[in-house]
Amino acid sequence: MKYLRENLINFKPKYDFFIGIDSDGCVFDSMEPKQKECFCPVTIEKWGLAGISKYARQAWEFVNLYSKDRGCNRFLALQKTLYLLRDQAAVQRRGVEIPKLDALKSWCERETKLGNPALKAELERNDNEELKKVYNWSLAINEALTRVVKGVKPFPMVKESLDKLQNSADLVVVSSTPIEALVREWQENELDQYVAFIAGQEIGSKKEHLEFATRNKYQPEHVLMIGDAPGDLKAARANNVLFYPIIPGHEEESWERFYNEIIDLFLQEKYDKEFETKLIDEFQSS
Fold first, then answer.
1. N-to-C CA span, the chain
2. pTM for the complete prediction?
3. What is the 3-state secondary structure (H, E, C) of the chain?
4. Residues 177, 200: contact at Cβ < 8 Å?
5. Domain at 5-29+153-285, CATH from 3.40.50.1000, 3.40.50.300, 3.30.70.260, 3.30.360.10
6. Which residues pair with 17 in a beta bridge?
């Protein structure tokens, strides 16, 4: 199956209910190895940050794992990390030049499909040295992910939850990860059989994924987004649909609660805003 933007736009419901599911850190316990063993080392290498590696690692991990930007797109994460580094006195004292990446910022502001294919297309139109370096950095990250991140399993109760839902709701992966990596991980763990579509960064933002798949196709209270990052909540709110949080540090308990309680409440139209708000408050405080 080809996971193309137009295919998601033309997605036809099979059931009355829809669930969008984030992947990294939500379904798979992959955020730590991906960010710490792949993204961060490649970033330090490609952007000449070895002289401030301690601070670069702290900033990268804060943005991508421990802040409200957790789970954001890699091109946005790079800008946020470099911004934090430029603002640190200890970094300034070491005299390491931190690039501003104005061309990347400009591209991100006008492009929603923040992935390598869109960046490659931009380079074909605009032969920009900064964007070339960003593109090579992104390719190096993909190579590291393929080489390093292997054998990462889904959290307990994920497969059981998908199996419980497969004859009641349309399930779609909603992620900012490249499609190639998503397909590989879902296939390796035999989870792809449960989902109708896998949407990655090449198709657009998570907000767009939900919009393309659900707008004017389901009742809003019949649509649920599952995620572990504030960006997932933001995507749900932008589409006026429900949200269920997988709370970082409590992923197993979150999936167990989803399987034992939330699925039935959602399908019975009893997962209301008041109940949702209690869970989101817990999520935000984490």
1. 37
2. 0.82
3. CCCCHHHHHCCCCCCCEEEEECCECCCECCHHHHHHHHHHHHHHHHCCCHHHHHHHHHHHHHHHHHCCCCCCCHHHHHHHHHHHHHCCHHHHHCCCCCCCCHHHHHHHHHCCCCCHHHHHHHHHHCCCHHHHHHHHHHHHHHHHHHHHCCCCCECCCHHHHHHHHCCCEEEEEECCCCHHHHHHHHHHCCCHHHCCEEECHHHCCHHHHHHHHHCCCCCHHHEEEEECCHHHHHHHHHCCCEEEECCCCCHHHHHHHHHHHHHHHHHCCCCCHHHHHHHHHHHHHC
4. yes
5. 3.40.50.1000
6. 169
Sheet with 17-21: list strands edge to edge: 197-199, 169-174, 17-21, 223-227, 242-245
Place of tokens 């190895």: 33
Residues of the chain with CATH 3.40.50.1000: 5-29+153-285
pLDDT at position 36 is: 95
d(CA 280, CA 159): 23
Average pLDDT over residues 2-24: 95
Q: pLDDT tens across 127-151, in order?
A: 999 999 999 999 999 999 989 888 8
Q: Is the pLDDT of residue 214 over 90?
A: yes
Segment 236-260, tens digit of pLDDT? 999 999 999 999 889 999 999 999 9
AA identity, residue 175: S
